[in-house]
Specification:
457 residues; Barwin-like endoglucanases; 3 domains; five-stranded parallel β-sheet; binds iron/sulfur cluster; Prok_molybdopt-oxidoreductase; iron-sulfur cluster binding; oxidoreductase
């Protein structure tokens, strides 16, 4: 039975797995508890080695990848952090052979640990803990029972909060005037809301921020790979032909809310994907290399606290990257040497999941908050299911007031129009949502951004 870390987000919940999942009660972050995603750990069809859409011997695909890397100029490498630190490091070595960086699309940041939530007396939160990071809710409840005051800034009312400030997309600037004082701040740093998170990170005491992230090893990836470009910048540069080759390691650009942006991928000279799942991204790629499933890789991952966690399993992904290095005439690498280098970079000699190593990640980004127009908005809300392309809901949330004003009937559909066209979707009436907002856990074809101005017609 392998000791593994749930791949659903950067909380790093521990569990045991063989054919079924078992609770690991001594796991430091979750004490055996798991959210809905962790309890399911979705299954999917495995990606096979392919060239031009046809299955091939792995050795041929490795040679083809190596050849393309050598002959294509301006290659970009992207790994969001869905692999172990050891595999990320191997990927970084591969990128450096063609003079490139690995982009994680989330800046490196390590903030406060989970214990700090429990000890806080004032908490300011920017997440919906009920759907986004449910296990954080347990720690917030503990703090609240011990007298902490919780203030929420979000698109809807958050039940656990003593005070809920509902954010209005046209007045996001108002977050600039929040007085953070010594409050503990709970924030989500993800590739789609960087401007929003940057504004908050740059406005408060960084030691007081619990900074949650969506991918299993987001923190480790940014510690080991220095490239800082957003997923939007990368797609823009592909469109402008500044990037001609793209190598994606367990990273799916289909997370962007506007599918139209993905047409940039058709402009690439070559798209290589190395991933565990067979899906429409691997169908689109020129070269497909298989990888260990995210929760089956052996190695180290760093959770949002910077805590190093061990996950047991296979090292097939590393072996493939090492073979590409060898095929390119470069020095091969191995799990053992990568693991030793990871420990050295962390300044530790062994993994102890109960001790958080010291981190000195420098947070650099400066961005401008986006401005949104319009009276009503469709807002894309994040859950582990969204990041893993396994949406578990097929409805949006709207207020009773909106349902009444649109005269919606039970089993009817909500009709919305944006600059991209119209959509009709199932809805659920929820008391906590304001009348001018539709919250969607699904990517809808009318989305133009995380926040899309809409009309109801
Ligand atoms: S998705 Fe995140 S919160 Fe849920 S079980 Fe996995 S690691 Fe824990």
């Amino acid at each position: 039975m392998n000791k593994i870390v749930c791949p659903g987000c950067n909380l790093g919940c521990g569990l045991y797995m063989n054919d079924v999942l078992y609770f690991r009660k001594n796991a430091p972050v979750n004490s055996g508890k798991l959210c809905k995603f962790g309890m399911k750990l979705h299954k999917y069809e495995k990606a096979l080695p392919m060239i031009g859409g046809k299955e091939e011997e792995l050795s041929n695909v490795i040679s083809a990848a190596s050849k393309k890397l050598a002959e294509t100029k301006d290659f970009a490498f992207v790994s969001f952090g869905n692999v172990t630190c050891e595999e990320q490091l191997a990927f970084t070595k591969l990128a450096s052979t063609v003079g490139s960086d690995v982009y994680t699309c989330i800046p490196g940041f390590v903030g406060a640990d989970i214990e700090k939530i429990r000890q806080s007396t004032e908490i300011i939160t920017f997440i919906d803990p009920y759907t986004t990071y449910p296990l954080i809710l347990r720690h917030m409840l503990y703090a609240k029972e011990n007298g902490a005051k919780i203030t929420s800034y979000y698109w809807k009312k958050i039940r656990i909060a003593d005070e809920s400030v509902i954010l209005n997309p046209t007045e996001i600037d108002k977050i600039k005037s929040i007085d953070f004082g010594d409050s503990l701040v709970i924030l989500d740093l993800n590739p789609l809301n960087l401007e929003f998170s940057n504004e908050i990170i740059n406005s408060c005491n960084r030691e007081n921020i619990v900074c949650l992230k969506p991918f299993l090893n987001s923190t480790g990836a940014s510690l080991l790979s220095g490239g800082e470009k957003s997923i939007y910048q990368i797609l823009d540069e592909i469109k402008e032909k500044k990037i001609k080759g793209l190598y994606l390691l367990e990273s799916d650009p289909r997370i962007v809310p506007d599918d139209a942006l993905l047409s940039a991928l058709d402009k690439l000279d070559v798209l290589i994907v190395q991933q565990s799942a067979h899906n429409s991204l691997s169908d689109r790629a020129n070269i497909v290399l298989p990888n260990d499933r995210t929760f089956e890789g052996k190695g180290t991952v760093l959770n949002f606290e910077g805590r190093a966690l061990e996950t047991e399993g296979k090292t097939e992904g590393i072996k493939i990257i090492s073979e590409i290095l060898k095929s390119a005439g470069k020095e091969e690498t191995s799990y053992d040497s990568l693991h030793a280098e990871v420990l050295s970079k962390l300044g530790i000699t062994e993994i102890d999941e109960y001790v958080v190593p010291e981190h000195n990640l420098v947070y650099k980004p400066e961005t401008e908050l986006k401005k949104y127009e319009g009276g009503s908005h469709l807002i894309y809300v994040y859950t582990p299911f969204l990041w893993n392309n396994t949406i578990d809901r097929d409805f949006v949330e709207i207020s009773p007031g909106l349902a009444e004003s649109l005269n919606l009937h039970k089993d009817g559909l909500l009709k919305m129009t944006s600059s991209k066209g119209s959509a009709a979707v199932k809805y659920k009436i929820v008391e906590d949502v304001p009348d001018n907002v539709v919250l969607s856990p699904m990517k809808l074809p009318i989305s133009t951004d995380v926040i899309t101005p809409i009309e109801f017609k």
